[in-house]
Every structure is written in structure tokens, then in C-alpha cells.
Design a protein that fits this description.
2 copies of one chain form a homodimer.
Chain A lengths: L1 H11 L4 E5 L2 E2 L6 H16 L7 E4 L1 H9 L8 H16 L2 E2 L5 E2 L1 E7 L10 E4 L3 H11 L2 H19 L4 H15 L9 H19 L7 H15 L3 H9 L8 E7 L10 E6 L11 E6 L3 H6 L5 E2 H7 L1 H18 L3 E8 L2 E9 L4 H13 L5 H7 L2 H4 L6 E2 L6 E5 L1 E4 L2 E7 L2 H9 L4 E5 L7 H6 L2 E4 L7 H9 L2 E4 L4 E4 L4 E4 L2 E4 L3 E5 L4 E4 L4 E2 L5 H13 L3 E5 L3 H9 L5 E5 L1 H4 L2 H12 L3 H25 L4 E5 L13 H11 L3 H11 L11 H6 L1 H20 L5 E6 L5 H22 L6 E6 L2 H5 L1 H5 L4 E4 L1 H9 L10 H6 L13 H18 L4 E4 L7 H9 L4 E4 L4 H25 L1
Parallel strand pairs in A: 4-5, 17-18, 18-19, 19-20, 27-28, 27-34, 28-29, 29-30, 30-31, 31-32, 32-33, 33-34
Antiparallel strand pairs in A: 1-2, 1-3, 3-8, 6-7, 6-8, 9-10, 9-12, 10-11, 12-13, 14-26, 15-25, 16-20, 17-24, 21-22, 22-23, 24-25
Helix pairs in contact in A: 5-6, 6-8, 7-8, 12-13, 14-15, 20-36, 21-24, 23-24, 24-28, 28-29, 35-36
């Protein structure tokens, strides 16, 4: 009975409020879930005996129960607030709402993650007609107090009650006009008194209630506002964007005020323990004299550099120096801090891990290892793999001014400046004469590849993150803004219209592929520097990484870039892009238009030496590393132009009757080309195509082997759904390869494998493994077919799905682990059941996405293959996967 | 050592030859694998003490080893042949190649399954210049012997050596001309002697060798020819078509000759133990007097009815009567027999289970149960489910003459006669005035549904077995010949050209949907009779069947037909076809063209009462049985016309600017509509569409419930890939349904479930089951997405795949058990892990295919749903599945 009672009582008195002050806090820095980042930081600093104004944190749990409970506080919470307020009063020797020594507090939101859209700080809470009198008495400065009062009403009115801040600002302006003064500081105490009255009447007319005189009422409303801001539109949107769950809730911090605006011996500032832009090891802080926090944020006055501070407040500066070092040593990370000096005495108001640029993150991590603050593993875990990309591309100089006229999808990161051209041919011609160009197209097709290569960046009006332009540009590491619907392209007129601007051929524009911005004119770029730190860091990464990192590369240039980034092989060399080279496309079309095998073979003979040359170049570049070559994959109609006009032109060019071209085009047209006559289905029905390709591969391999250059060709059959398809293609490959080897009279080791890119291949992987030396997951197509989702068409509903959280993530960006991933797992298990050492990789775009790389590591893939510019990201993600796995194991050990 | 030796010896003397004769055989009737069907039958008859001329069978194993061994006999085989030949000689009191009592033999192929393309019989083998002399002496009939000799040379030359038979025929004709006679029988002994000489010279000039005088050499060559015919083109093709493995091999039967052509007291005949056309219980045989087997086959002379035989050979007839009854009793089935009477004495030459029509099969099975020859289970196993279909459709009267001018795909069985029309509208108009019409279209689209309904049959020039025309026609039980490339349609001119014929609008044609034949003019049809036997049989079937058989039905008429065939519910009621009704399509298009939700809702309100009416009709028809209604599935662009011309017409009709229509059409166009904005993706992005449909369903249900008519609505959400899609749709359905129920103030039990038609749904079935009361496998789409295979486009390679045995079967016809089936199995297991009693069905076309039905039974589905005309097939397949399972269980018990 008694036990039950206690339990019941305990339940009733659940702890919702955590006190900090007097060098002791009930919370700790580890309690971010419960106290939010800010609350945990305040508790930790307090426990470190760092001077922090006393206060308390209302937990995130209270916030969640508030919402569950139809916006009522959970039982006991308010009582605990009052209780802890008493403790604060005691610590500060003041009393909330008191007529003599009134305690003023700040109220701040504070979730686990810092989030825009959460409630701003309300300062000076507790002021009312009663307390200001005492406050005036205490400070002896009526003007200061009324200034604080009018600021409080503004903050409370706008932030807590949602009144348009402009109304207060206008009244202030009006007052200044009336008084004939320029600056706020020129208003007298009486002017401010009058203004307070006016502010209160604004408050009343806007809210229908009087401005709350009762301090506790003020506090209650402020706490409600903090809680309420958790479900504000901006906060929700931010959480959607960053995959933050709704049920984290926000904490609320109530802290006794200290004043940076109590005269010239007071001030308030912010700082970073190291340079957040470069990572340089130097204290980096700024301070405003005689100011409150909001002034710093507003950025109206220019703050003092930290060096000045040392001169003005030598004691406080010394203390600050001591404290930031102590904090950094304690947190073992670069920190972002906020402080206030009240009449010469330093108070710390916040500390948290500081945001930093990718370059800074890298430098800080490496420096801290050198300083023995952290170990290599921690350094590796500190860098967000996605952030690395920033280091590999040109970026827009933040100091330069830019006129953003439109925003498309950030399809491929980096920045580019160039003159606008509207066709791939123009791009190549202009580039050939040394011009930097931006290729602007409604959308791109494989025929534009040459122009894309030649351009600095690509801008398209249509298409999504996985459109042709986006995929190819990412592969090339080239800046691309895709699906920018705001631009209206007139191809014939060679201009585009955006908003009220006409951009003509030859005009300069700048693209920011990281943000999707389109900027008029030339903007300065900062070129990436793969400094020593980058190299050191990547070496560390590779010490831990187990999964291989290969690349998707179709050209010698791709291959070269990839090797520079550390590729350990080519996991996907698409051969179709080679077919689009201007000198080949004609022969390819001849092949397509041929009436029979003999005609096709004749045309293929023309392509053979060119394709062989491609392979020689790529093999040479990748000397000694495996090169996985996928035989022709796309349906043949992709190689023919689609419009009548283009067909007519082609008809004249090829001297083939237009009707024949048109008829062939119609025959080849497909309802669902994604599910059509492509991949090995081509190889099976037109064996001569694949035979030519295998011959080219093996002849290239033989010629290099003769020159003592090591080659490891891996021949990959696409779109296999049934083992018999692979069996047939395998026999064909062996037949052709053996003929070539015999002709050259040498031996070259080659392997034959397959893409796993339809569910059936995954499900029957045990059968398929009997004919394969390796598997490579083509997760782009596997995602499309597993979901029954065409990425070309998904634009009409997929963004909505992600927005409405029907899908957590876009499955074309982050691997769908439950569905597609499960099929991969099944395929790995079934495949390795038959061949224990079956080599398995992934060559979809997921191969360069950190969470997907981690998944691939977990299910035991041998390698991921990604576009060259994603290689460092994949390497880091691979290393982090190992470390996370270890951490998880250690954790489960320690809890057992 | 000794043991090894014996083993080695045993291996050397492996038994390749099985003797039969003198009332005792080494083989039995069960050894079909080894002895082939014919050899097993001869052995069995011998053992039954039935008079069979002595002989021996060379095993299929010998044939296989012959091919493995580079066309050499396996060691010992020839020796065993010689050994057994001795036994035959002994049994017959004659000697092979002997100068006095020469033994003649027949040589026949005989595989496990009777197969066209295998070698024909060679009779009279053993004749040569030596033996004919003895033979003449023995028979005293020189003319007879020379006639036999010239026949033997013809058979040996053409069948064994592959000489063009025409050469022999011409020589014979020439001889007759020379001798001035009309009939073969008018040639004298000398004429025949001369002919033999001539035949031998033809033989020499064609083969380069002399006609073999040595009887053993003749035998060796004949055996080689039998073996060789196993890999003849026709045999290979037949095996491909009927999924018979290549490694079965053929046996070879060598049997002593008896002669039906030894005068008027000899004869040869064939018979069936019951009427193979009707199943009537009467002996059905024909006999040729004084003839050899080849004369019967040639069909030159009209054979005698069995009644005549009784008069001519009363003793032999009595014996034959006794034997056929004994055989039927022994084999417990209707048999096909061959016999010869030599000088009054009866010999049996072959027995096997007789081929029969579907009607006969049914009658025989039922009669034999009544006669207690077999039990019901056996009767059920005796009927091939596919055969049943013959009983449900009109067929072409085999007695009528028909001019087949083209052959398309047998897309939907049955036969139809009617006048040709070229548009769906014409079909409806002509039919409305009482004309029977055949709708001829390049291909059909959903807009043609009305015309298809009105027509007797459908003929299309394009499209495969799963094209729109084929699928819809099968659903309607309507005859359809699809993809008939030989017809060239001129739509404007309203005629089609085939070969040299022009068929104009209004001309009669006849279609045979069972064979794919297109016939000029009217041909007599036999209407199906679902006689009493059919009803009895289906009742037996249902006694054993466990899996439910539901139907796919979109209209009241479909539902009525389906109930007549025994449907236990509707497993798939597609709602999109309802949208195409002429009075609705306009409102549907208004909905599609609406700019916002309000506009769409306004248009949907017009559709609501019509759709509600549809459901009332269907519910009423299915009173008391569940009706599974799938909410709208196809992408919206399917409801807009596609050509500019049609759009212009629509623009005028709807008073919507052409440009707007065109623009909307372009916006809706998809690269891969199969993987596009359809299914629940529509319901999620345009909730008002599904809301209207649910409202219509529930209002219909409420109104009937008020009238005390029981309704069981099951609402099915299509194309779910992620549980959240279903969750959202489920909430929508419940909301709308509850509103309707509240409005009517009554309760109607309804369920909500989902199609499983993409791999992701199958793989995550445990998650999806949490939101579903039932699953229904949409195996058409599941097959398409699992294989990554668009059935609209597969025509370019899928037939080749099946032909080349890359795929055993067309996966759109027979369920791919390894791939798609494995996913189904996973989904059933995962789904039932969460909900033990989750109802699971299948509504793809596989639901009516026997092997697929068996699979569905095996993995524990609750029901299959198929088009109305497939219901009896599915019922039978369901019962057979139970019996097969039991047989397998019994077998494994008996072997344990």
C-alpha cells in the first residue's frame, strides 16, 4: 500500500524543472534530450563553477505533455516553476515581482537541436508598474529603467503575443519625430514614459487585454509562447527539412537577468573558441559596450573586436579567456559562447558546439588531435560527410554582392560563372575558343554530353534532382541548377526571360549549385584548395574504413579525377555515353537503322576501334585497378532524335528516307522505356552489339597487357532478371573473349558479373550467383522498379510525399533501407550462400550518400561506387560506419 | 577387388534392351520413362497375356548415352539387341536375315510423351534379295512380297535415310503410266520387280551408297534414325512448345511383323474403347481389310466400321472385344488401340490412353465413377483444367469448310461470326439494330469498351496476349484474335487487306479465338451446352477444393455471368471502366481539366450518382457475397484523347480552348506511365477523387442495406508501396464512410485492404498489414515491376525469350513462381505474422491459370479472382491442387 502511494505521489511530483545556480546545477551537459541544448549548456557551465546567472530549465517532457494535454501544463509543473523561482530569488538575493528588490528574468526556448523558427529571447521579464519603481530606486537611473520597460513591452508584445513589431517601431519613430530627435538615446526619461503608455495601448488594442501587470502572469504567458513556438510553421518546416522528429519538444529556460547595458562598464558579446571560418586556433569574439543581447543580434552598432575588450575590461577579459579555454578543454570541441559584463563582472549566458565551415571543421579536428584533446576516431566522427563536398568545388565568395533572380534545384554543388549558350554545340564551340560558358537548356539529353563537358555549369528549366542533367553533372562534378521553372527559354531566339530580365546568349550569369541560385552577372568565386589537412584527414579515414570506394566513370577524365579523390576501382563504366560522341553517333544510328544482322555488324565495325580506344584510355588511367564495364544499357530509341524536324535533318545527313527513319522511330518507341527493350534484352536480341563491345574491351586489355600495363576488366551485364539471361550472355562473353585472347596469344584475367537492378534478380540471387563472379546493385533502377516509381515522372507527387512525411526521405537520394535495402540484404545472403566470396558492390547514386554507404557497409558489400566528387564523402561515411558499429557494440556490451 | 570388378562388369552390362513376347515382358506399363509410352504399353499387354507379336524395346537411356557419346551406341547395347533378336526369333520360330524362315520386323520410335516430329514406323525391315526369296516361298505370293519390298525401300529410303519420298512416288506413277494402269494393285509382280530395281537406283543416287542388303545393317541404320529423330527440328520445336525437357530421350521398339495385307482374311485397324468425341460408352474402331498400317494412316481407302469387322472376322472380333474390355478395366481409362489381323488371327500392336474432346473427357470421367472403375478424385485429376474452357464457348463446327486467311494470337478463346466494323461506335450502332459484328481495330483502348461489349468478337492488328483487347475480351468471355500483323487496316477507308483479299465494312468474317485463325465468310458454330455432366463434375470439384474462387467483374453483366459459373465473390471490381461510359467521360474530363480542388469536386459531383448506380447494380447482383472495389488506378491522361485531331474535337465539344487541352495533356504525359502518377498516388494528391468513390460505394451499400439486401463492400487501395500511403488512405476511407453511415443512420460492415503489386509492398508486408484487413496480389503489375518488364513493350523480346527457353513460360500467362511467387510467399508470411487471419487473394490474370492457382493454394491464399469464363478452370485447378498435395504427402509417407 505504502509503496503504491509513494509511487503515485512520485508520479504526481514528476520532475519538470531543473535548477542551476550558485555553482551547482540539477542537470548536466549530457541531458540535452530533456533540457535542450541551451539548458544542458547552462547546467554544465554552472557545474564547472563558471559564473552563470541563476535560473532553471523547464523540460522538453513538460512541453510534450503540455501538447498531449490540450495545452495545459502537466500536474505539478507550475508549482515546480514557482518553487525554483524561489531558489533563484534566494541565489540572487532578489524577489520576483517584488516592490523592493525585484528579480527580472529572461525566458528562452531551447530544443535539443538549435532550430530557426523557435521563440526569440524575452528579456527583462518581471517589469511592471510596481517593479520599475523599485528598479529605478536600485539603479538610480530612471531613463535606463523606462528604456528597459519599453523594450520589454515590445518583446513581450511581439514575441509572446504575436503583435506586429512594426506597430511599436512606428510609435517610437513618431515619438522621435515629435520630439525632433534623431536617435533613440536622445529620448528623455519622460519621452520613454509616454512611449510606454502608448505601447500599452497598442498592446490592448491588438490583444484585447491589458498588458499583464502581474509578473507571474507574464512568466506563464512567456512559457506558453516558448512551448507554442515548437509547433510554429517555421519550426515544423525546419524539422521536416532536417528530419527532426516532432516529439522531441522544446525546453524553456528562465534565467535571472544580468545587464550589459548598465553603462560604459557593461557590455554583452558572443564568441567562438576558434575561428569558425578557417578553424585557426584563436579566440574569436565580439562585444558591444552598454548593450543588451538584442542589440548584438540586430547588428545596428558595430561591435568591438576582442582585442578592444581586453583593453576596456581587463579583468573580465582575463576571466573570459580562462573560461573559454576551460570550456573548450571540457567539451573538447570548438564552442560558440555568449556572455554579458555587468558593471565589470562577467557572466556566461550560453555555450554550445559552434557551427563552422567545412574547412574549419577539418582544421579544428586535425588540430585537436595534434593537441591530444581528441583521438582520431573522434575527429573522424566530427566531420559531416556531406560537408566535405564544400571543399571540393568552387564556392561563391560570401563577400561579393550578387543579384539572385531565380532559384532552381541544387542539383550538383559548386558554383560557376560563364556566358550563356543555348545549345550543346555552341557550348563546345565557344569553349573551344576559350570562353567560359553556362549551358542553358529546357532539359538535357545524352546528346548534350559534349556541351555539358565543355560548360562551366548547367542550368535547366525542367527536371528534378535525378534528371539527366543532374545525374550527369554530379558525375562530372560540375555545377548544375536544375528544374528552374522561373526561367522561360526561347531556344530559337537564344535568350531566356526570368522575372523582368532578358538574358541573351553571351550574357554572363553565375550559378550556385549548392543552393540552386541563379545570379545575374559575374560573381567572384573561391577556388577549392585540397590543402594538406584534407590529405591527412582522408588518410586517417582510410585507416578505419573497411568498405571499398570505387567510382562511376565513363571517360578517362572522370577516371583521372576519381583516382585523385582516392577511387580504388571503377564500379560502373557506362558504355552508352561513348556512343553519343559526335564521331560515333552516326555509326550507331546506321546500326539501328540496319535491316538485318549483317547491316548492324557493318555499322558496329566502325564503332569497334573507337570503343576500343575508349577502353585503352580508361584502362591506362586505372592501371592496376579493376574496371567494371557495363555493356550497352539504354533502349535504342534513345540514340535517335525525337522530333520530326530533327529526323528530317538526320534523314538528309544520313541519306535515309525520312519515312524510313520515322517508321523505325515509331517501331522503337515504347510505352514504358524504363521497363522496355534495354539492358541484356538488347544483348540477347542483338548479340552483335554486345559481341562488339566485348571484343573492344578484350582487345584493349590485350594490347595494354602486351605493353606490360596491368588491366583488370570486369564485364557487367545489365538488367538481368533471370539467371538464363546471364547464362546466355556469359557464354557469349566467354566465346568472344577467348577468341580475342587466342588472337593475341596472351592471357588476361577477366570476370563476368551482373547488375542487380530489378527485384527478381535480388529474389533469385542464389540462382544468378551460379553464373556471376560479381554483383553490382544498380539502386537507381532497383528503387524505381521496387517502388514502381519512375523517377522521370515522380516529380508530380514525390515532393508532396516527402513534405507530408509519407516517405521519410526521397528514396532516390537516400536508400530506402526497409524496401530496396531489404531486397539487397536478401540478395547478399542468397548470393553468398552459393558463392561465399562473391564480390558485391553498389553503383547507383546511393553509393555516394553517407547513410546509404553506412547501410552498404552493414550488409557486407565489398565496395560502393559513386561519382568522382562523392568519393571523399563515401570514404568518410565508410569510416564512420565502422566507428558507429563499434560504438554500438561497445554500448550493447556496457549495458549487458 | 572382386566387388569392384563386379561393379565394373555390371556397369558394362547395363540393361539397355527389354524383351517382350510369349506372354511375358521384362518391362511393365509403369516404365514409361525408360521404355517410352509405346514400349511400356507393349510390355504391359504382353504381361496381360494379350497376343502381341514378340519384340524388344531399346531404352531412352540408350538414346541419351548415344548422344552424349557422340552418336555411338553405349557399350553392350548392340550386343543386347542381337541377343534379344535371338529371343524374338525363338518366339516366332523365324530367323532374321534367314534364307529360309526370314524374320521381318517393324522399327518404331516411342518417347515418354507422344510427339509429332518423331520417326514414323518402318515396316518390313529385314527384306533383301535373299530373304524375299524365302518369303515368296513361304507366302507363295510373289506379287505380295515384291509389293512389300518396294514399300520397305520407300519407307527405309525416305524415313531412315531422308530421301524425298516424291522421287519414289514419281517412279511409281511413271511405271503405272508406262504400263497403262490406274491402280497400284494393277501392277504385276514383274512390274514391281522392275520398280524395286528402279527404287534401288534412286536410293543409290540420293545416298551415294547401295541399298543395304544386310538386314543387321538395315536394323542399325533404322535404330540410328529413331535416335536421331529426337533432335530433329520438329521434335525440338514441339518440346519447346510443350515444355518437355530435352533429356528424356526416345526409346526404340523393334517388333516382329504381322501382316494385315495377307489377303482378304487379314486386316489392320485402330480403335477407341469409348467415343473420343462424345465420351459415349461404345467401342469405336475402324479396320482396313488386306492392308498394312501405313494405308490406314494415309486415309486413301475408306475403312470399315467395327460392325462390319464382326461379320468378316467373327473370331478375331470376339477376341478384340474381350481384349479392349480387359485393357480398359486394367488401365481404368479410355484407350486408343492398334491391331492387326493376320489370316484371321488377332494381334495387338499398341495401346495408350486415348485423346478425347473436353466433352468426352467429362462424360468418360463421370461414367467411370458411376461404373466404379475410378473414384471421384481420379475423375477430377483426369480433366485438364484448360480443356474445360472448350465447354464454355462456341466452337467452330469441324464439319464446316473454312478459308483461313491469317493467323493472329489466340487471345481469348471461342469462335465468333459477324460483319466487320472498324470503330467502337459503329459496333454499338450496328449491334443496336440487331447486327452481329466483329470489331476490327489496329489496337483497342479503354474508349472502345462499349464497342467491344457490343461485338461478337474482336480482331486487332497489334498487341500481345496481354494487350488491352486480349485482357478485356478474356474478361468478357468474348472471342478475340490479337496482334494479327497480316491484316492491314485502312481505318478511313473502312476496309482491311489480308493477303490478296480486301475485306470491307459489312463483310462477314469468322474468328477462332482458340487457335487465332481469321476466316473469310460465315462458318457454322457449335454453341456450348453446359449439360448436366458439367454441373455434376463441378460439384465434385467443389467437394475437394479449399481455395476460394472469386471473379474480376466491372459490370453487373460480368457479375451475373460470374455467379453462374460459381464465383464466390468479386475480387476485383475496377472502377476506371465506369469512368469511360459515354455519359461520364465528359464529367471525368471536366474534372481533369479543372484548375483547382473546387473545380474537380464540382465535376466529381456529376459522376457520383452514376458511380453509385454502378455499385448498386453490382452489389444487388452479388447479394450476400463480398465485392472488392478498387479505387481509381490508371493515370489521368488515359482519360484524355491523345491525337491533336481528337483534342480539337474535344475542345469544341467541351468549349475549352485547344491550347489549354493540349497543355494539360502535355503536363499529364508521362515517360513511364506504368510507374507514374497512378493508383493511390492519385488518391493522395487528389483526395477528392477517392472521397467521391468511397461516398458512392457507401451510399450504395446503405441504400441496399435499408432494403434488407446484404452487402459486403471491401474497399481496395491500389499501388501501395509504403505503409504510410495506405495509412493515409485508410483514414480517408474511414472518415468518408463514417460520414455516410451517420447520414443514413445505419451500420454496414466494410473492410479496407490493398493491392500488393510492387515488390516493395511484398517486402514490407508486415508493415502494410498493420493498416490492411486484406491483401490482394495484383500479379499483372507485380510481374511487370518485379521483372522490370512492361507488358506493352515486351513483344519485341518476350516471345524470343520463351522460344529460346530463356524463360520457361511467359510470366504474364503463368505465374513466375521463383521470382514473383517468392515475393508473394514472403508477403503472405510477413502479413500473417502480424495478422494471423489476414485475408489474402490474387486478382491478376494468373488467378485463372491452373498452375498459378495451384501455387496460390500452396502458399495459403484465401482465394483467387479471375475473369468469369476462367472460374470453372480455377475451381478445378483448386481441387486438383488439394489432391496433388495429398498425393505428394502420401508418396513421401510411403517412401519414408
Amino acid at each position: 500500500m505504502a509503496k503504491k502511494m509513494v509511487k503515485k505521489l512520485k508520479k504526481r511530483v514528476k520532475k519538470y524543472v531543473y535548477f542551476f545556480g550558485n555553482g551547482k546545477a540539477q542537470g548536466t551537459g549530457k541531458m540535452k534530450d530533456l533540457l535542450g541544448g541551451k539548458g544542458a549548456g547552462l547546467a554544465e557551465m554552472t557545474n564547472l563553477k563558471i559564473p552563470v546567472p541563476a535560473g532553471f530549465t523547464i523540460t522538453t517532457e513538460a512541453c510534450n505533455e503540455y501538447f498531449k494535454n490540450n495545452k495545459k501544463y502537466p500536474p505539478g509543473m507550475w508549482e515546480q516553476v514557482l518553487e525554483n523561482l524561489k531558489k533563484v530569488e534566494k541565489a540572487m538575493g532578489m524577489k520576483f515581482g517584488d516592490e523592493e528588490k525585484p528579480l527580472l528574468v529572461s525566458v528562452r526556448s531551447g530544443a535539443k537541436f538549435s532550430m530557426p523558427g523557435m521563440m526569440d529571447t524575452v528579456l527583462n521579464l518581471g517589469l511592471n508598474e510596481t517593479t520599475i519603481k523599485a528598479f529605478i530606486k536600485k539603479t538610480g537611473n530612471e531613463r535606463f529603467v523606462y528604456d528597459a520597460y519599453r523594450r520589454f513591452i515590445t518583446m513581450f508584445g511581439s514575441i509572446v503575443m504575436g503583435i506586429n513589431r512594426q506597430l511599436f517601431e512606428k510609435a517610437l519613430e513618431h515619438m522621435k519625430e515629435k520630439k525632433g530627435v534623431q536617435l533613440d538615446t536622445d529620448l528623455t526619461s519622460d519621452d520613454l514614459k509616454e512611449l510606454v503608455k502608448e505601447f500599452k495601448s497598442i498592446y490592448k488594442s491588438e490583444t484585447g487585454t491589458d498588458f499583464p501587470e502581474n509578473s507571474f502572469e507574464q512568466l506563464r504567458l512567456a512559457i506558453n509562447a516558448v512551448f507554442g513556438s515548437w509547433f510554429g510553421d517555421r519550426a515544423i518546416k525546419y524539422r521536416r527539412l532536417h528530419s527532426i522528429p516532432d516529439d522531441l519538444g522544446t525546453a524553456c529556460n528562465v534565467q535571472s537577468m544580468v545587464f550589459g547595458n548598465m553603462g560604459e562598464n557593461s557590455g554583452t558579446g558572443v564568441g567562438f573558441t576558434r575561428d569558425p571560418a578557417t578553424g585557426e586556433k584563436r579566440f574569436f569574439a565580439e562585444c558591444l559596450i552598454n548593450a543588451q543581447g538584442e542589440d548584438v543580434v540586430a547588428g545596428i552598432r558595430t561591435p568591438l573586436r576582442i582585442e578592444e575588450l581586453a583593453k576596456r575590461f581587463p579583468d573580465a577579459y582575463q576571466e573570459l579567456n580562462r573560461i573559454y579555454k576551460k570550456l573548450e578543454k571540457h567539451y573538447k570541441d570548438m564552442l560558440d559562447i555568449e556572455f554579458t559584463v555587468q558593471e565589470g563582472k562577467l557572466y556566461m549566458l550560453q555555450t554550445r558546439v559552434g557551427k563552422r565551415t567545412a574547412a574549419a571543421a577539418l582544421k579544428i579536428a586535425i588540430d585537436m588531435v595534434k593537441e591530444k584533446l581528441i583521438d582520431k576516431k573522434t575527429a573522424i566522427m566530427r566531420i559531416d560527410p556531406e560537408q566535405l563536398e564544400q571543399l571540393l568545388h568552387p564556392t561563391i565568395d560570401p563577400k561579393s554582392k550578387s543579384l539572385v533572380v531565380a532559384k532552381g534545384l541544387p542539383a550538383s554543388p559548386g558554383a560557376a560563372v560563364g556566358r550563356v549558350v543555348f545549345t550543346a554545340d555552341d557550348a563546345e564551340q565557344w569553349a573551344a575558343r576559350g570562353e567560359k560558358v553556362i549551358l542553358v537548356r529546357p532539359e538535357t539529353s545524352p546528346e548534350d554530353i559534349g556541351g555539358m563537358h565543355a560548360a562551366q555549369g548547367i542550368l535547366t528549366a525542367r527536371g528534378g534532382m535525378t534528371s539527366h542533367a543532374a545525374v550527369v553533372a554530379r558525375g562530372m562534378g560540375k555545377c548544375c541548377v536544375a528544374g528552374c521553372g522561373a526561367i522561360n527559354i526561347n531556344e530559337e531566339g537564344k535568350y531566356f526571360v526570368v522575372d523582368t530580365n532578358i538574358v541573351k546568349e553571351g550574357d554572363y550569369i553565375t550559378l550556385n549549385g549548392t543552393t540552386g541560385e541563379v545570379i545575374l552577372g559575374k560573381v567572384d568565386l573561391i577556388q577549392p584548395e585540397l590543402t594538406g589537412e584534407f590529405g591527412i584527414f582522408m588518410k586517417w579515414v582510410d585507416e578505419y574504413r573497411k568498405i571499398g570506394v570505387w567510382t562511376n566513370a565513363d571517360t578517362q577524365m572522370d577516371a583521372r579525377v576519381a583516382r585523385e579523390f582516392g577511387a580504388e576501382g571503377i564500379g560502373l563504366c557506362r558504355t552508352e555515353h561513348m556512343f553519343f560522341e559526335p564521331d560515333r553517333i552516326k555509326a550507331v544510328r546506321e546500326m539501328i537503322l540496319a535491316d538485318d544482322t549483317i547491316g548492324r555488324k557493318k555499322a558496329l565495325e566502325k564503332i569497334l576501334p573507337m570503343q576500343k580506344g575508349d577502353f585503352i584510355n580508361i584502362f591506362t588511367e586505372m592501371k592496376g585497378l579493376p574496371v567494371t564495364i557495363r555493356l550497352l544499357d539504354p533502349p535504342l530509341h534513345e540514340f535517335l532524335p525525337q522530333t520530326d524536324e530533327e529526323l528530317k535533318f538526320l534523314s538528309e545527313d544520313m541519306k535515309v528516307p525520312f519515312e524510313k527513319l520515322k517508321a523505325r522511330n515509331n517501331t522503337l518507341r515504347e510505352f514504358n522505356p524504363m521497363l522496355g527493350h534495354r539492358g541484356c534484352r538488347l544483348g540477347i536480341t542483338y548479340p552483335e552489339i554486345y559481341e562488339m563491345q566485348v571484343q573492344a574491351i578484350m582487345e584493349a586489355a590485350c594490347e595494354l597487357t602486351k605493353q606490360k600495363i596491368k588491366v583488370i576488366p570486369e564485364i557487367m551485364i545489365p538488367l538481368v532478371g533471370h539467371v538464363n539471361e546471364l547464362k546466355m550472355m556469359r557464354q557469349m562473353v566467354i566465346k568472344v573473349a577467348d577468341e580475342v585472347l587466342k588472337k593475341y596469344g596472351i592471357k588476361v584475367h577477366y570476370t563476368i558479373g551482373t547488375m542487380i537492378e530489378v527485384a527478381r534478380a535480388a529474389i533469385t540471387a542464389d540462382q544468378i550467383a551460379t553464373e556471376a563472379e560479381f554483383f553490382s546493385f544498380g539502386t537507381n533502377d532497383l528503387t524505381q522498379t521496387t517502388y514502381g516509381l519512375s523517377r522521370d515522372d515522380a516529380g508530380r507527387f514525390l515532393p508532396y510525399y516527402v513534405e507530408k512525411k509519407i516517405l521519410e526521405d526521397d528514396p532516390f537520394i537516400t536508400l530506402d533501407q526497409d524496401g530496396v535495402g531489404m531486397l539487397m540484404k536478401i540478395a547478399v545472403e542468397k548470393g553468398r550462400k552459393i558463392k561465399k566470396n562473391l564480390k558485391i558492390g553498389i553503383c547507383g547514386e546511393h553509393g555516394g550518400e553517407p547513410r546509404s554507404v553506412e547501410f552498404c557497409h552493414r550488409i557486407g558489400l565489398n565496395y560502393v561506387s559513386c561519382s568522382p566528387y562523392r568519393i571523399p564523402i563515401a570514404r568518410l561515411a565508410g569510416a564512420q560506419a565502422v566507428l558507429k558499429e563499434k560504438m554500438k557494440k561497445d554500448l550493447s556490451k556496457s549495458t549487458v
